[in-house]
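In pairs, describe these two lines:
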Amino acid sequence: MDRPLLGRLSARGCCSFSTLKAWLPILSWLPRYKLKWLQMDLLAGLTVGLMTVPQALAYAEVAGLPVQYGLYSAFMGGFIYTLLGTSKDVTLGPTAIMSLLCFSVVGGQPHRAVLLTLLCGLIQAGMALLRLGFLLDFISFPVIKGFTCAAAVTIGFGQVKNILGLQGIPHEFFLEVYYTFYKIPEARIGDAVLGLLCVALLVMLSFMKTSLSSEDAPTCSRVARKLVWTVATMRNALVVVAASFVAFSWNASGYPVFTVTGETSRGLPPFRPPPTSDTTANGTVVSFGEIVEGFGGALAVIPFMGLLESIAIAKAFASQNDYRIDANQELLAIGLTNIMGSFVSAYPVTGSFGRTAVNSQTGVYTPAGGIVTSVIVLLSLAFLMPAFYYIPKACLAAVIICAVAPMVDYRVVAKMWKIRKLDLLPFVVTFLMSFWQVQYGIVGGVAVSGALLLHNTARPPIKVSDHGVLVMELGSGLSFPATEYLSHMIHTQALQACPPRSVVLDCHHVSVIDYTVISELRDLLRQFSLREVQLVFSRLQLSVLEVLLAADLQGFRYTDSVEAALQMESKSLNGRL
């Protein structure tokens, strides 16, 4: 075989393997996997697994689904993300926000929740294949913060009824607030005491973990610090186990003073295609089209929020631990996780900030730690489901409240007020509208942010200075929404002055120009010519200059600097005199 052909084949093989590694990131780290990595991945996976099980049970309550659906949703992500994920830290599974969004759409109907998972996965995977990850950039930080703060308040207050053991509370937020306070006299003492004790214990353990990482933490032995950190990290599992033992003891004594989870489906979920129709309580069959129509705008909101939450987490930990992620590959990993999850009765999942933080702090080396977490969840489904009967609902409510409380970031309001007050507008709109309908809050916030963005595009800052000749410096780009504003400024400042004045247009910030702008400039040049004054362009970027020259504008003049333009206009003025 000749050498050139051999070289081409070798290069083609190398290119193909690089492409394969881009689609299957596991190939970039698996060939160099080490024993030390295995030890740390096992430790991290075990730690996160013990955290995942109680959280998954609790988040299923938020989604309005039987608790086993939380576990059904918690194991597929570990396997898929190990193959396709680009972050060593991210863990996929049920989260508070996705559970709330799911409940707002399906209202606690398992079959529809599973179908929603499939559709979300297809949308997310489709976005990844079409490289549409850039669309997430249009959801601004104030919108995200407004939504997460409102979601935390909604989720947290929604668990107060379970802390107090109240029944018959509606799910709409404002009615929920009213009836929770109205029914306080009906609170069950056992649930209230147990729930408040669980909250206090979780807060104390969380504070202990935080104090260990502070600079003024008390000095103690390394073993003691490790023990305290381990106990604090597994606080959810420990509290759930302790509360379940208390509930079991009281029930065994003939005093069922706690509201418990009750009977749950046992064993692993069957692997089967998600349902494409549903049957109501009165026997009416709801078709696939009717279900999708009922989902409405949620089919845009939920996939977007899932992607946004997971990619934001991945980027944060990639920056912290000094590695890079591929956003579109992350979209594919989340999309396939939801697609495959729908075959095991999961509801929509995304990256979890809390579990990812624990994964990172435990020292995970590769995404393989997620496999260990998934195995723990599967073992829980296979062998521990009967024990979940005695988990008090007040205890799960305490886990949820403590998990979402840090999401209420009141300090961000002061920061936005200090940096740019106008950013508070989309924040407030999103925050308030989310109490009406969660998806309306996101859509409203994005709409307000979009309006502000369009306003900035249509009204670019224009700095006007007088050097005998007016110099107008465009502070940003120039696109078709801004043409009317620029034309108005030139007419009022120069053409309608008495006598009319020449203008030097400083365009060094302009990188793109479109047909509408060209048409408006042609008209302006004609107006200047009729009034026997000049419109001179300066500091044009090469790409813009090429477009203007190709447009063959009559009377078009340009210079490399503002000073040269002023000199040109001065000579022209002297010539006319």
